[in-house]
Amino acid sequence: MSPDGRSPEPRVTDERTALRGIPIFAEIDDEQLDQLAGAADRQYIPANEWLFHMGEPSDAIYLIASGRFAAVGADGVVLREMATGDSIGELGVITGAARSAGIRALRDGVVWRIAADTFTELLAKAPQLQSAMFRAMAVTLRESRSANVSRGRRVVGVLSAGDAAAGPVVDAIAKRLGSYGQTAVVAPPVDATAAADHYGELVEAFSETLDRLERSNDWLLVVADRGSGDIWRRYVVAQSDRLVVIADQSHPPRALDPPVTQRPVHLVTCRVVPDPSWWDLLQPVSHHPADHDGVGALARRIAGRSMGLVLGGGGARGLAHYGVYEELTRAGVVIDRFGGTSAGALAAATFALGIDADDATAAAREFIAESKPLGDYTLPAIALTRGRRVDRLVEGFFGADTLIERLPKEFFSVSTDIVTGDQVIHRRGLLWIAVRASISIPGLMPPVQHRERLLVDGGLLNILPADVMCADPDGEVICVDLRRTYVPSKGFGPLPERLQPPAVVRRLITGTETALPPLQETLLRSVELAAPKGNLLELPRVTAIIEPDVSAIGPLDFKNIDAALEAGRIATRAALEARPELVR
């Protein structure tokens, strides 16, 4: 049934041809195909509706005529995706077992239902169908063991919001996508929409056409420009794997019809500074201005070529990140997404400002290496330092009102809520607060009180948040890991050996003659050790791991910036030589 309460009339003349196009029926004879076509019950399944649930009886198999479906296991985990030509549920029918997973429509779709007894009877008569079925099940088994369960987000719906004109942006996206593969722009079909007084009729009239276009192109841009009818807008939202919303006003309408948040949404703004209320309405995964750089970044996301750079914590050793970024940009590696923890969050936020790599390094030299950020020591009632100098430096550099949402590049940082023990991922809000929270080493700097949370260094839970970056399926990820080596300082902080006090003085002050690392360094190293260790190579989409040799740099040795920078440069050059495909 359609959402209008009307059943779209099946087009019987197309049934045999369409069923013959299903791979498992390609080799059966005409008589068997006629029997199958007579028994097949054509059903329309709206997007987000369930075809069946896990544990239900295996009373039929289903053949996908159009649309896309997901097999959903326990706890809502998507096991795999299926599209036109795939069969569903045949193993349960053959074995008699209950449904091992639920099936949910990701888009509006049409399926043929064949009852279990009809299918088993046909299977007994057609050995070639048995062979095809076993091949299909082997493919299913192989896909179920793959980390990549998605068929890709190839159908992109483009919606104008308000009076925004979609055409110029669509043309720009299509041109950039053309560098990566075949792209088609799909406008409302006059013949289909004119005859479609009901939504279900539009699905019947156009879904197979859309399916054919998808098979012959790498990406489809399905456009609902201003003035498009409500039925077409609804169809575009339901049939798309992701949505691009184009806006030309600072504040959004109270609502978009139809709602769009059940798909990944990308916000594109034309000549306006978007208000944060756009994020409340759309919950977009990314924002792009409608200029050359913004459209390029969006096209790379759609094509799955959006490179992410995730940076680990490490105190003063985090200055190596700036050397890494110098070499990556010099080699022509385009980074669209940045994320990090602690010192990595500070560097990632700097790069996300969109400034030149050399300017980023100059800023690190001025605001970190030469400013003594941890110099305002106090009685350790809350922390060893007041944290006010760090506050002034971070807020002064990033700006008191700079929002993460409005950055030229995408950014996130990670902090730890010491009240709840939760990892907090900062993707919205004031940039300087997100950075300040992530670098708040417990005991060394005061926590950051932010709304109901009490935030400290993200390294307690996730010192290199590659898993956060890798959860985004739109591109590969480069990781910079500073945990490779640790050589503790001896004596009183960064004092050179010739100025270290004799053992008798050290004993009077510390209670031991042994030269041990200073308290600040011990606190920072404790944060590093507290974070869980994981194998980065096991994460999907990690394409390179850069490990600068920062063993000669103490965690608080901010003055040693030149050695840290050079360590980052050397490690990056080695990584680029090993992976030349990173430059593309």
UniProtKB/TrEMBL annotation:
Q: Where is this motif: GXSXG?
A: 340-344
Indicate whether tRNA-binding appears among the record's keywords. no
User: Gene3D superfamilies of this UniProt entry?
Assistant: Cytosolic phospholipase A2 catalytic domain, Jelly Rolls
Question: Biological process GO annotation list?
Answer: lipid catabolic process; phosphatidylcholine metabolic process
Residue ranges of every copy of the Cyclic nucleotide-binding domain listed in the record? 24-140
Catalytic residues as annotated in Swiss-Prot or TrEMBL = S342, D457
Looking at the UniProt entry, the stretches that span the membrane are none
MF annotations from Gene Ontology: phosphatidylcholine lysophospholipase activity
Motif GXGXXG in this chain: where? 313-318
Pfam families per UniProt: cNMP_binding (PF00027), Patatin (PF01734)
The chain positions of domain PNPLA read 309-470
* Motif DGA/G, chain ranges: 457-459
Reading the lineage from the top rank, the first entry is Bacteria
Print the keywords alphabetically.
Hydrolase, Lipid degradation, Lipid metabolism
The UniProt family comment states: Belongs to the NTE family.
Q: What is this protein called?
A: Esterase
Q: Which organism is it from?
A: Mycobacterium palustre
